[in-house]
Design brief:
With about 200 residues, the chain is mostly helical. The chain folds into two domains: about 30 residues; about 160 residues, Butyryl-CoA Dehydrogenase, subunit A, domain 3. It is about 80% helix and about 0% strand. The protein is built from eight helices and no strands. It comes from Phaseolus vulgaris (Kidney bean). Keywords: Signal.
Amino acid sequence: MVTTVRLVSLLLVSLVIYISGTAQCSVTKHSDPNPAEFVKSSCRATRYPVLCVHSLLAYASVIHRSDRQLAMTALSVSISRTRSSGSFLKKMSKARGMKVRERRAVQDCVETIGDSVERLKQSFKELGRTGLGEDFAWHMSNVQTWVSAALTDDSTCLDGFAGSAMNGNVKSGIKERVLHVAQVTSNALALVNHFASTHPTHSP
């Protein structure tokens, strides 16, 4: 009889511990939402939300729930893809069989996309310098200016292929890549702007 009572008591204690632990786990999960959901939610503020999620979701564990880290990751992805497009353009500029006007447009693109990479790198470094204080707005203004300039470089590249006379495989191949880069960079700028608008600052 005593043994039975002790057994029942142990089972009750174990049940209480289990329920308590489960409740605590539930509270923890509720108070610390999934980082992936944070990325998806933040991407709704961008112009190309599907591309935003596709580009950044793999970095959710690094981004966690930080607007600053989200913006920095978006810029890093933009740098990587813009640089990749620049390498593609360099190879294209040496391809045979292009018209003189096409080759000149490709060479101009190599230069402007190169400028875009440099401006994005500047933006990334500047964003890394941001912090609380009176200099925050100044740093963010620089970041926004350089990312906007990078977007202008992408548009300038595409402008060189305007008109039906430039239609063909060269134009279509370059347009697809540069448009992708422009969309990724546009998303990065939107996330930078969001961070700038929500980040707390101290008055001087």
